[in-house]
């Protein structure tokens, strides 16, 4: 599990690429520039780690495209110490970005194989989530609510109500909504019952799945 000078150089090029595509937040760019993405993929695929593309990981899932990770993270406006919830731990890459930004991260994954693999892997490379959970993201995590922000990293056919209700007032939910293509959507909780919705461009995610298997 090495991170070499060559990897760092490739990573800097990736940062330049996503900057050109419109990512501005320096802290987000800094996190992408720092995290060894190649370690989140099987070792045979190192050449794919620093191109701006999604890539298959275990259990038919994908590690999201770096631009998409940066885009969603930018919308979350994470501050150090924020309590955040991620739905879809997958490889743990997005989780690492959030940890790097100083967030206390809770992340839920419904595939046991990925949950186990990522639970072992993240601490090994020094990224500690507050808690990784094997469970159903549609329900959110009522025990730990409310959250400063919530990110969904799979395509949701609809917005799960628990996720909206588990936001702090002033909190942000970033969720790609749609079936085959998703619209990146930001919900701002303005009051107990008041939400503001903003839509961004189209993205493609693996589906947020309901009940297991
Ligand atoms: N954030 C991940 C991207 C993973 S892809 C990364 O950085 O690598 C989306 C993930 O969502 C997959 O791992 C998939 O198993 C998971 N997922 C799908 N439906 C889910 C659900 N209902 N609850 C929790 N996780 C879910």
TrEMBL record:
- Stored CDD domains: AdoMet_MTases
What the entry lists under Pfam families is as follows:
PCMT
Single GO MF annotation:
protein-L-isoaspartate (D-aspartate) O-methyltransferase activity
Its Gene Ontology biological processes?
methylation
User: Which compartments is it annotated to reside in?
Assistant: Cytoplasm
Where it mainly occurs, coarsely classed, is cytoplasm
User: Which keywords describe this protein according to UniProt?
Assistant: Cytoplasm, Methyltransferase, S-adenosyl-L-methionine, Transferase
Q: What is its EC number?
A: 2.1.1.77
InterPro entries xrefs: PCMT, SAM-dependent_MTases_sf
Enzyme class name: transferase
Which residues act catalytically here? 64
Reaction catalysed by this enzyme: [protein]-L-isoaspartate + S-adenosyl-L-methionine = [protein]-L-isoaspartate alpha-methyl ester + S-adenosyl-L-homocysteine
PROSITE patterns reported in the protein's UniProt record: PCMT (PS01279)
Q: Which domain of life is it from?
A: Bacteria
Family named by the database record: Belongs to the methyltransferase superfamily. L-isoaspartyl/D-aspartyl protein methyltransferase family.
Protein task: Catalyzes the methyl esterification of L-isoaspartyl residues in peptides and proteins that result from spontaneous decomposition of normal L-aspartyl and L-asparaginyl residues. It plays a role in the repair and/or degradation of damaged proteins.
Return the protein name: Protein-L-isoaspartate O-methyltransferase
List the source organism: Winogradskyella vincentii
């Amino acid at each position: 599990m090495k991170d070499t000078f060559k990897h760092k150089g490739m990573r800097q090029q990736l940062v330049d690429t996503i900057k050109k595509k419109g990512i501005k937040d320096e802290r987000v760019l800094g996190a992408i520039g720092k995290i060894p993405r190649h370690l989140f993929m099987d070792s045979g695929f190192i050449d794919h780690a620093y191109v701006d593309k999604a890539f298959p990981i275990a259990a038919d899932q994908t590690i999201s495209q770096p631009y998409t990770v940066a885009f969603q993270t930018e919308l979350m406006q994470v501050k150090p110490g924020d309590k955040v919830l991620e739905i879809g731990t997958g490889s743990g890459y997005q989780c690492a970005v959030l940890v790097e930004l100083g967030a206390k991260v809770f992340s839920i994954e419904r595939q046991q194989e990925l949950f186990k693999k990522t639970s072992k892997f993240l601490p090994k490379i020094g990224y500690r989530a507050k808690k990784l959970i094997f469970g159903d993201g549609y329900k959110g995590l009522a025990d730990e609510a409310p959250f400063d922000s919530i990110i969904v990293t799979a395509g949701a056919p609809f917005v799960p109500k628990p996720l909206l209700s588990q936001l702090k007032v002033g909190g942000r939910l970033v969720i790609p909504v749609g079936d085959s293509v998703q619209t990146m959507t930001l919900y701002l909780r303005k009051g107990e019952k008041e939400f503001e919705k903003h839509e961004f461009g189209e993205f493609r995610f693996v589906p947020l799945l309901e009940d297991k298997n």
